[in-house]
Amino acid sequence: MPAPVAPKPVMHVMAGVMHDAEGRVLLAQRPPGKHLAGMWEFPGGKLEHDEAPLAGLVRELREELGITLQRAEPLIRVPCHYVERELLLDAWQTDQWAGVPQPLEGQALQWLAPAQIDPSILTPADRAILQAWWLPSRYSITPPEVRPDQCGAWFERMGQAIERGKRLIQLRLPLWPREQVRELAAALLPQARRRGAELLLHGDIEGALALGIGVQLKSTQLATLSARPLPLTQRVGASCHDAAHLKQASNIAADFATLSPVTATRELPQRPPLGWTRFHALAESAALPVYALGGLAPSHIVQARQCSGQGVAGIHEFWLG
Question: Is pLDDT above 60 for 195?
Answer without folding.
Answer: yes
